[in-house]
Amino acid sequence: MKIRVNGEGVQLKQPIQTVEELLHHLNLEKKSLIIEHNHIILKKDQHRESQVSDGDQFEIVHFVGGG
């Protein structure tokens, strides 16, 4: 399966069914994130039910604290 994450092509070698699984695969599941899936911003409770398909596009932004 091939998807785009933040403008870059990503080839997934293992099957990924949901956005929640994708975040786990990318080691991002514990971060505060905003995810845009095919130009639609997802709420956190939608990550478990939103399906990932070949050719999907994601923009993932996470917050960094500092001072």
Automatic annotation (TrEMBL):
Report the superkingdom from the record.
Bacteria
List all membrane-crossing ranges. Answer: none
Per the UniProt entry, the signal peptide is none
Q: Per the record, a Pfam family?
A: ThiS
Matches recorded under InterPro entries: Beta-grasp_dom_sf (IPR012675), Mopterin_synth/thiamin_S_b (IPR016155), Thi_S (IPR010035), ThiS/MoaD-like (IPR003749)
Name the chain's protein: Sulfur carrier protein ThiS
Per the UniProt entry, what species is this protein from, by scientific name?
Gracilibacillus boraciitolerans JCM 21714
